[in-house]
Write a structure and sequence with these properties.
- The complex is a heterotrimer of chains A (about 80), B (about 400) and C (about 325).
- Chain A has helices at about 5-15, 30-35, 40-55, 70-80.
- With about 80 residues, chain A is mainly α.
- Chain A has one domain (about 5-20, about 25-80): ACP-like (Non-ribosomal Peptide Synthetase Peptidyl Carrier Protein, Chain A, Orthogonal Bundle).
- Chain A is globular and about 35 Å long.
- Chain A starts with a helix and ends with a helix.
- Residues about 85-90 and about 105-110 of chain B have low confidence and may be disordered.
- The longest helix of chain B has 18 residues, at about 180-195.
- Chain B is built from nine helices and 19 strands.
- In chain C, the strands form three sheets. A seven-stranded mixed sheet of chain C has the order 3-2-4-5-7-6-12, sandwiched between helices. Chain C has a five-stranded mixed sheet with strand order 9-11-10-13-14, with helices on both faces.
- In chain C, helix 3 packs parallel to helix 5 and helix 10 crosses helix 11 (about 275-290).
- The chains are: A mainly alpha (about 80), B alpha+beta (about 400), C alpha/beta (about 325).
- The interface of B and C includes residues 103, 130 and 147 of B.
């Protein structure tokens, strides 16, 4: 999976949680909780969706790394590197 | 018209001098005849003609030195000679033409193009890069005209389409509820509550460090679907505490309080776009934390799309409200009539706390109670909150 | 690059002189190095590369060999196995066919077959290419064939720096290295730093940066490709020119990075197209950069004929700047 696919998945899953958001206008370095007005339940829903969709289990300690679009792409790209 | 040229009579011969002609115009010659004598570095050499025909014109005079390849004479070949006599019919034997003079290679011929492979019917031709970009933006390639070779869609065709598309309007939340009507209902209920219910307010700080540690350890070993949030523990603590404090679980109706037989915990959930509802989780005190968490997730999920059951709205016997970690330290709610209490949870903050005589940073959660003073008073309310605190100190038993 | 006061100014040098300087430098650095081949001593080399070296280094180190490629290449292999550092000069790649068994079955294989007991630290230099009307049997470009063989390295220096610098690095390699010198480059002249020294032998070089299309080539075709790039620039196409320098191993990283950037590629290879090095490079691009491509890959190779003798046909048979420009424009979807 390359960065382009990861971004697509992110947009879709975050879009399910915050459907009215235009992701083209979200600063990729902005804190998503602020930008999308989501709470810890929403974050858990998102993490669960990532697990369901691409099979990656993200531990709680890593949640902060995924709290920006850029951070999420970097984190997921690194985790999905083929061996 | 054929030409008889100065031959190369040696690998290093560059030019020769014509010293004698053995033929003149209108002489017939055949292949192999000696027609001239040429002087070279190696001496005088008789040269033969390779054509058969009739000498037309002598081009170079005796005594002239010319480079190899220079035309010395012209002749009409046999076929041409006959053609001069009668109208040429289509020649039955191919005319014996001299080999064509090769042109100098200024523009070498481009290699024959690879065989043109036409696209299979029904298959779209698009470059890999174009396909990828189209897919990322959900574009249908069949709607794009290709400008590449063979009509293939290339990257710039997809980019041009994207640039010409207006950016999609932000999606409105898909809500089955009428937010306007909901707002009006909330307004009516809250106004009635403040008019009719004499509220009292209590606040209590709970050290939830142990809770957080227990949650972290438990969640580390679980996939996301099975993880718990602190809110689930808080809700369970409230539901369990209500068994000992029934004065907070029930309805004020017909001028009196009726304790509810079951604990149906109303969860206040904010709706995106501006709305609020507090659907109930039935028998919350009898659910495990995992079941409670699952029920909360289900409620939140359905709330997004406005799919709440009427029983859920009507049946809540008490409400729990939390603004979450982006909210404030303490939240004092307004009781939803005909309920008689609402418990509020603020955000967890790290504060200096005295534990066993030492100041330490601890995670502190402020829990509040707004109570209906017609039904309960501060003393009971305080004990209720302290019970919630006590339960949260032993999360594994919740 | 700044030239400080102490560094000598660059000198006008020919490719031939650069190769000669490389041989002299190697012979001075290491007494195990010697040159052997047909006409390298008294005649000074078929292409005058080793002119003057016999007088300087003597007959033990500049050795004229009998007219037997198989024999003297084998002798060179033996000398290398025994601890020498020979430079075997095979007059041209055309004659190396007579030494193919030595190169493939001995030089390339002995380390593996001996279980690493023996290596063959040998350098073989060969002239290659067409353009001097030497006709079908003497105009081959077979470096692509050699690049097929595991166990050896294959180099194609195109610039003066590489002609001067690749030889020593090749001699330091514990395994056989083949260096191909295109015959049309020997007279090429240009500035070369007086202190030019060894260069790496495993990286491709970007000779001209561009963004619209990658033109990937080596050896004698480099300068035709650069000329084509200049013509394309006049029409608004910025071509990136990649000089492979090393044909085995190929520098996948540089090649793929270039094509991922430009999304289009033409490979220019003087060998015949079928089963060519160009085919190998295109396949690697398909393997590693498929989803970045915006156009089919293309190549310009020699026409699939024995190289003709007459000048105009010989020129028509090998890559030319006009053919490269035409191929690039086809890839870009431009006509004319």
């Amino acid at each position: 999976m390359n960065a382009l696919d990861i971004r697509t998945v992110l947009r879709e899953e975050l879009g399910n949680i915050a459907p009215e958001i235009d992701f083209n206008s979200v600063d990729p370095k902005a804190d998503l909780r602020e930008a999308l007005d989501i709470d810890s339940m929403d974050v858990l829903t998102f993490i669960t969706a990532i697990h369901t969709r691409i099979g990656l289990v993200i531990p709680e300690v890593d949640y902060p790394k995924l709290m920006t679009l850029d951070g999420a792409v970097t984190y997921l790209s690194a985790k999905l590197q083929p061996r | 018209m054929a030409e008889f040229r100065m031959p190369s009579l040696g690998a290093d011969m560059e030019a020769g001098t014509l010293v004698e002609w053995m033929v003149k115009p209108s002489d017939k010659v055949k292949r192999g005849d000696i027609v001239a004598v040429v002087e070279t570095q190696k001496g005088a050499i008789e040269i033969e003609i390779f054509e058969t025909g009739v000498i037309e014109k002598i081009l170079v005079d005796i005594g002239t030195k010319v480079p190899v390849g220079t035309p010395l004479a012209t002749l009409r070949t046999k076929v041409e000679a006959e053609a001069g006599v009668k109208e040429p019919a289509a020649p039955e034997a191919p005319a014996i033409m001299p080999p064509p003079i090769p042109k100098p290679a200024e523009a070498p011929p481009i290699a024959a193009a690879l065989p043109e492979v036409s696209p299979l019917p029904g298959r779209l031709r698009a470059s890999p890069a174009a396909r990828q970009l189209a897919q990322a933006h959900g574009l249908d390639l069949t709607t794009i005209t290709g400008s590449g070779a063979g009509g293939a869609i290339v990257l710039k065709d997809v980019e041009a389409r994207l640039a010409s598309m207006p950016s999609p309007p932000p999606k409105k939340p898909v809500i089955g509820l009428d937010l306007g009507a909901m707002r009006a209902a909330i307004a009516a209920a809250m106004a009635r509550s403040k008019r009719e219910i004499p509220h009292y307010y209590l606040q209590h700080q709970v050290d939830v460090t142990g809770c957080e540690a227990w949650l972290a350890e438990r969640n580390a070993a679980r996939p996301p679907q099975s993880r718990l949030l602190l809110g689930a523990l808080a809700a369970k603590a409230v539901a369990s505490a209500l068994r000992r404090f029934p004065a907070f679980n029930g309805f004020w109706q017909n001028g009196k309080f009726e304790a509810a037989p079951a604990v149906h915990l109303g969860m206040a959930i904010a709706i995106r776009g501006g709305g609020l509802a507090a659907p109930a989780i039935h028998d919350a005190d009898r659910l495990s934390c995992d079941e409670l968490m699952a029920a909360m997730r289900d409620l939140v999920q359905r709330m997004r799309f406005g799919r709440i059951r009427s029983s859920e709205i009507a049946d809540a016997t008490i409400t729990v409200s939390s603004l979450g970690e982006r909210g404030v330290e303490a939240l004092f709610g307004i009781i939803y009539p005909p309920q008689v209490a609402i418990v509020g949870f603020g955000k967890v903050v790290t504060r200096p706390w005295v534990v066993e005589g030492i100041i330490q940073p601890r995670s502190i959660l402020t829990v509040t109670l707004s109570g209906d003073h017609r039904v309960s008073d501060g003393h009971a309310g305080a004990l209720f909150l302290v019970e919630i605190d006590r339960l949260l100190q032993e999360p594994e038993k919740l | 690059m700044q030239q400080d006061q102490a560094r000598p100014a660059p000198q006008e040098t020919t490719y031939r002189e650069a190769v000669r300087a490389a041989i002299r430098d190697a012979m001075q650095r290491d007494e195990r190095v010697f040159l052997m081949g047909e006409d390298v001593g008294r005649y000074g080399g078929c292409y005058a590369v080793s002119k003057g070296l016999l007088a300087e280094f003597g007959p033990k180190r500049i050795r004229d060999t009998p007219l037997s490629e198989s024999g003297f290449t084998g002798a060179g292999i033996g000398a290398a196995m025994a601890g020498m550092r020979p430079i075997v000069e095979v007059m041209t790649v055309n004659f190396s066919l007579l030494a193919l068994d030595q190169i493939l079955n001995n030089a390339a294989s002995i380390r593996s077959m001996s279980g690493n007991q023996f290596g063959v630290p040998l350098v073989i230099r060969m002239a290659t290419g067409a353009g001097r009307q030497l006709a079908a049997q003497h105009s081959h470009s077979l470096e692509g064939w050699y690049a097929h063989i595991p166990g050896i390295k294959v180099l194609a220096p195109a610039t003066l720096e590489d002609a001067r610098g690749m030889l020593w690095t090749a001699l330091e390699d514990p395994d056989p290295v083949l260096i191909f010198e295109n015959i049309m480059l020997y007279n090429m002249s240009g500035p070369l730093a007086a202190d030019a020294g060894p260069v790496d032998i495993d990286k491709a070089a970007i000779r001209r940066a561009g963004r619209d299309i990658s033109l990937i080539t080596y050896g004698g075709s480099l300068f035709k490709t650069l000329e084509a790039a200049t013509q394309l620039a006049a029409e608004g196409v910025e071509a990136e020119v990649v000089d492979l320098r090393s044909l085995r191993p190929l520098d996948d990283e540089t090649i793929v990075a270039s094509v991922r950037k430009t999304r289009r590629a033409v490979v220019i290879d003087e060998g015949w197209r079928s089963g060519s090095l160009a085919a190998e490079i295109c396949m690697r691009l398909v393997e590693q950069a498929f989803f970045d491509l915006d156009a089919p890959l293309a190549r310009v190779c020699s026409e699939e004929v024995p190289i003709p003798y007459p000048s105009h046909l010989e020129q028509a048979a090998i890559p030319q700047a006009t053919k490269i420009v035409a191929a690039a424009k086809r890839v870009l979807g431009r006509e004319g």
